[in-house]
Amino acid sequence: MVVTDYLPGERMAPHWHPGTQVSMVLRGAVEEGVGGREHQGTAGAVVVKPAGTVHRNVFGPATVRMLSINILPGAGGDADDRLAALESWRWMEGGPASRALWRLLSTARAEPGTAPSLLADGFWEMVDALDVYAAPPPSPSAAPAWLCRVRDHLHDCAGAAPPVRDLAGAAGVHPVYLARAFRRAYGVPVTEYARRLRLRAAADRIASTALPLARIACEAGFADQAHLTRELRRETGLTPGALRRAAATPPIQASPAVA
Questions:
Q1: CA 183 from chain center: how many Å?
Q2: Closest CA to 89 of 137, 24, 144, 19
Q3: pLDDT at residue number 221
């Protein structure tokens, strides 16, 4: 397990890893490209890159901190077969994989003396969580231009996403048609996508600033700090305070047994 900081604006030329790599953004934002495809990941986003996947990265605009686990061929034992189901580069926005990695990091940080055994347990939990994503990922590249504009609008107003009816009206389609097309292209309902955007924005501010949690909750569009705490615990398994402490983990390289 490795925790690495990247400087604002830092770039990594196309490169690849000899084993499968599972990474999560702890704070900041990273743009990753594979072939002609690009994805921007923020706090809590998880990416799986099978061995040999050639990819490039741009970090910033603030310092980026990432957690990575590298699984060399044969080192994962049974995990090799489970991870073989993920045969393509894939980003996951929250969900079971994110929760497993946040818990892994939080436990390793809180109990460094027993980190090797705890890391092994957390590793298997992560492998089990990744198995949820064995089905082929949605294909956003196939989304029509009007649907891409809807998604971009959600990103622009993550803290106060308009109702689906308003989004559909602006796009010139029926709300039901929008709902079906969005789920087909992006794998989740419009409302869930908007919820995750709001939560990711809050998680990034929790992880990368010392701002009061009540202020972060208000500015991210939550009713209050308690509402943010409930949603964050549901998404990551951690309270805002625990997530902030986990994200504060300095750059490390831990047990080579799974890295």
A1: 18
A2: 137
A3: 85
Position of tokens 């044969």? Answer: 74
Q: Look up residue 155 and give its amino acid.
A: H
State which amino acid sits at residue 246.
A
CA distances for 1 relative to 69, 101, 106, 251, angstroms: 5, 10, 13, 10
User: What is the value of pTM for the model shown?
Assistant: 0.79
Sheet holding 11-15, edge to edge: 11-15, 55-59, 30-34, 37-41
Q: Could you tell me the sign of the dihedral formed by the alpha carbons of 123, 67, 131, 75, in that order?
A: negative
What does the block give as tokens for 105? Answer: 């990091």
pLDDT of residue 250: 77
Structure tokens at 23: 């990474």
